[in-house]
Amino acid sequence: MSASNLDEFFEVRVAGIKQQMESEASERSVDGLTPTETFRAVGRRVRRMVRPAHDDCWLKQLRPGLEKSGFRFLRVAQLDEADREWIAEYYARRSGRC
Predict the structure, then answer these.
(1) Which domain holds residue 23?
(2) CA–CA separation, 91 and 93 (whole Å)
(3) pLDDT tens digits, residue range 66-92?
(4) How far apart are CA 38 and CA 32, in angstroms?
(5) How many distinct structural domains can be found in the chain?
(6) Portion of the chain with pLDDT greater than 90, in percent
(7) Can you tell me the distance from the alpha carbon of 53 to that of 3, in angstroms, rounded to the nearest whole number?
(8) Which of 10, 33, 37, 63 has its CA 20 to 30 A from that of 93?
(9) Distance of CA 62 to the CA centre of its chain
């Protein structure tokens, strides 16, 4: 499914499902699912569809290009205490909790 088709699908079909959810419609569709169940099923399926392409792009293009430009990608466990404190403080400020 192309990106434009997927965009249109979300703009029309998924938006309709969201409206049903917001109106608290509990009627089941022909497949026996409630709007909430349908929304969750669509989300799972779409993630399975697009994830391989996103992963491939990240692993083969974006990350190597960024690393060549000097970016480093570390796991939290690889950070020292000062870096972890800086991150916690940064996100606390951004969320308005400080």
Answers:
(1) 3-71
(2) 5
(3) 999 999 999 989 999 999 999 999 999
(4) 9
(5) 1
(6) 64
(7) 11
(8) 63
(9) 17
